[in-house]
Amino acid sequence: MRKKQRYSQAQLAEEANVSRQTINAIENGKYEPSLGLTFQLADILGVTVDELFINKLPAQSI
Question: Do 43 and 49 contact (CB within 8 A), yes or no?
Fold first, then answer.
């Protein structure tokens, strides 16, 4: 979703007030963001929380 919105990891991290490494870890499934950060990222990207994370679900789960 970040790439679709043309944000770099650094740009998204700056807007969310977290490190670029945090964004990288979230994208690579190595870190689960807090509920507050999840809503903040969705808001920045202009999507719902569902839309933000639905792409992470295996196809058979949808």
Answer: no
Which pLDDT band holds residue 62 (cuts at 50, 70, 90)? very low
Banded model confidence at residue 16, pLDDT cuts 50, 70, 90: very high
- How many Å apart are CA 51 and CA 53, to the nearest integer? 6
**Structure tokens given for 25:** 């870890």
Rounded distance, CA 46 to CA 56, Å? Answer: 18
- Residues 15 and 55: their CA atoms lie apart, in Å, by 22
Task: Please give the average per-residue pLDDT across 33-48, as a whole number.
Answer: 95
DSSP letter at 46?
T
